[in-house]
Each structure stands twice: as C-alpha cells, then as structure tokens.
User: What shape does this take?
Amino acid sequence: MKLGIRRFEAATSSLKPGDTIPGAFVFKLYDTFGFPVDLTTRMAEQRQLLVDEAGFEKKTAEAWQRNAKTASTNQLLLNANALEHLRTELNAKATVDAPKYDPEDLTTSVVALFIGGEPAGEFVDSVSSKADAPLLFGVVTESTNFYAEQGGQIFDTGVFTLANGTELEVSNVQLFGEYVLHSVELPAGGSVELKRGDQVTLVVDHQRRSAIMANHTATHMVNHSLRQVIGGESAQAGSLVQADQFRFDFKHSAQLTADESERVEALVRDLIHRDLPVNFKEVPKEVATSIHGVQQLFSERYPDIVRVVAIGVSVDDLLADPKNTAWPQYSIEFCSGTHIARTSDAREFTITSCRGLEAGVRRLEALTGEPAVQAIARVEQLAAQVAAVEASLGSQSVAVLDRDVRELEAKLNDALLPYHSKIALRERVDRLRERALELGKEAMRQSQQAALERAADIARQLQEAPQPFWVEVVPGGQPKVLSSIITQIQTGAPDVAVLLISPDLEKKTVAVVSSVPKPDKLKANDWAKHVATTYGGNGGGKPNTAQAKFSDISKVEDAERTAREYATAHL
Assistant: This one.
C-alpha cells in the first residue's frame, strides 16, 4: 500500500488541477501494487485531478483476455468439431443438468473422456495416472449436479468418487453447446483408471455452493433495492457471482452516494432478516414476460422455457394474476442460477465498493455471510481506534498524532469495510489529518520563536566572549528551525562556525547541521560528516554548509563532545 502511494505521488507530482491520470497507470497501481481503484480516485479528487476510467477498464479487459488465454492451457475447451464428434461418433445425448438445482450426491455414467492439446485435443476411451505428472482431462457424464459457469455465476467444484472409493478433484465446469464438461485431475503416480461407461458419484462442494447461492440471491435483492433507492433507471448491466463476493453492474448517471449505498444496504438486510422464501418455477417465456414488474436482461437471449425466481411471493400467485400492480414491490427475475431457499440463509450483507465503469454504468461489489459479518465487525474496531486518536487531541505531541493518523490511514486503506462506513471513517481521519497539519504548523511557529530567542542569547554570549565555534544540542529541531538558529547566531557573530545536533525521539534519528562562514581550516561538510560517521551515520554538503544524520540517539552527548574536539583540532 505504501509503495502504491509513493508511486501515485511520484506520477502525479507534475500534474496540474484538471489534468487526467492515464487509465494505464491506474491499472498498473491496481494490478501490480494491489492499490484500490477507489483510493486512486479519491486521492485524485483531493488533488483536483481526473481519472481516465474508460482507459482503466480497457486495460482491465485486456488483462482478462490475456489471463484467459494463459489459463486456456489449464481449461479444457470443446470446439465445434469436438461437439460434432460427441453427437455423431459417440452418439452422446445432451447432458441432463436438472439435478444442479438440488445438488445431492449423484451417481451417473461417463459418456466421454477428453484430453486437451493442440490443435483441438482428442476423445479417448480411458485415462490413467501418469507417473511423472498430474493429468487434467475432461469428463462428460450422462447427467450432472454440478453448475456449469453461465449467466454470471461461477462454476461449482467438488469431486468425482470412483467405484473403488478414489476421489478425483473437479476444478472447473463449463457448458459447451448441450454438453457439460467437467475438468478433472488425476494425481501423479498411483494406478487410477477411468473408462467410458464407468459409474461415478458426483459430489459438489456444498459449502462453496452455499456461499455462491447466497451471493446470487443477494444480486436479486440488490437489483430490487437499487430501483427503490435511485429509481427505475438502475437497470442491471451485468454481474459476476463468486463464492467469496459478488459484483453487480447497473445503469445510473451518477456515482452512488454513501447515503444511497447505506439505504440500499439497509433494504437488502431487511429482506434477509425478514426470512422470506425464495420461490422459483419454470414457465413458458411468453407467459412469464406478462408478469407485471418482472426483471430481465434485454441483452440476454432466453430459451422458450424460463426459470422465474421470486422473493417473498409464489410464482403461482404471480401467474394467477400477472397484471397485478402490487408485483413490483417484490424481486421477480428470469434466472437460471442457483439460489438459497430463504433470504435468511444469506445471514448478512454489506456493500464494499461502488465505482464507475463507463459513462452511465456503475459497479457495486458486495459480501454476504461470514465475510459480510467480519467486514461489519471491522467498522466497530476501526471506529474505536479513530475515536481514541480523536480523544487524545491536545494531550500528545504533533509527531505522535501524525504517526497515529498515518497508521489509521493505512489500516483504512487496507480494510474491507462497508462502503458507506469507510467513507464516514475516512472523513473523520481526514479531519484528524487536517488537525495534525494545523498543530504541526503551530508547533513549528512556537519552535521557531523559541529557537530565535535561544539564538539571540547565544549571539549575545559570543559578542561578549567571542569564540571560534559553537556546538549546541537542539532537541526535536526541524531543518528550517535549525537553519533559523544558525542564521540568528551568525547575524550577531558573523565569523563563528556553528554545528547543531538535533535528536528526534519519535523518528529515532539525530540531525547534524553545520555552517562555517570562513571554511579555511574547518569545513562544514567535513565537520558534520565526521560527527555522523563516528556514530554510524553519513552526510554531505559544501564547505560552508552541510547536513548529516545518524540513528543512535544514545550517542547525542558523545556526538557533542566529538564535534567540539574536531573543531578544536582544526581551528
């Protein structure tokens, strides 16, 4: 995160208000350094800069295509010739995938075995373990309870259990035409063999499937709630349902505000807490489209028989009175995905981000279940930490406040939190940052005033009792303060060589600043460097002015003595 911030600051240092940060750079921050896009956007807004969101999305799409191409070696593909071979040579019937909606363990037979390769792979009668490497192969079965990736929902995973009890991992499931292809892996070694016609038991990973189902039902609840909050223009523009989170794209002309996000979240959580039934039924499309308020993606090509999913109302009631004007108060959609039985099965819900994709399209990301519970719990933890820093204002040093604010900013940037809560916490931390800057400026002013008064005293001493050099320890002095002291001293005693040693207890460093008006025998750079290097530091500069530093604060008194001895020996 810190590296991402440094990269951002370096790249934008030369930009002026109104300039645009290239999308390629925004993507690099996100892809290479894991820097959140919403944080880049926010930092840009603080500097009055624009973000090339379209360019970012273009780079994201290109990366996805590259990744998909790279992953193709690990994902089996059935082309048109392979599908024709299934139909005509193997006489394979379409995979029966109705059991995917009730994924109890399913015993079925192997219809085809497919080995990937160039240019198109081949069908085989059997596969067996290799001694030197695992084997990834495709299996088409007579029927399946695995959900193949489609309609924005990720595929199921699980295992195939062979007749002898051996379990083979299913890592991917895709739909090609009318056939479902399971990507299965044979581990290296052993003597496992699988043949066409063998009986296998298909076991879905139910824990992962349950999380996917909760997230998919939540997309429906979000779609319904968005329309209530921002109106009918919030038509769905796409979605991606995974086990750990989901995203939902929707049409809206403006950014979703923190207040709107909170209202949408509250509506979805209310649906969850009301424990509503999630009903479904397969209906002829021409009948289903007559239901008042039913939602469908107009870019989607639906089959003649569609699956209607309704929350809180039965599909039979909808069909009995399709024109009823009360139906829009319910979530009703065409959807072939898998869903939880009741809304309470989702447990919890929170929106974690919302950003623009392109003109008029927004992307919302959200969590359900335990991930949502944890995200909400983090708010209380971080809010308590912010409150503790707020309560300490006025009772701690500026350096400590600055450190605490930086730590809060880092935690806030890294934490996965509810979107509206994160915005609210950022506003509080921003106010703390502003207060830290104000206190820093005031502390600097007071420090400079005290430094000038001390410098005036030193100058009077030197006027009354001239000395060739002056060494002084100034605790916590900033570079500008140290320079002011030297200037004040040499204004009253223009020929005196001055070296100041300034320990910073918070940063655990010691600054050494020197000034020699007449660098003949004694040179400022040699003087400061000698002091710093004696105690493990370094420095440099010119014969008349120099700066150096070292880290061992316990050596401040020794450094003062070393500085005096060096100056005495050279003057």
User: Anything to note?
Assistant: DSSP finds 15 helices and 23 strands in the chain. Confidence is low (pLDDT under 50) at residues 67-73. The longest helix spans residues 419-464.
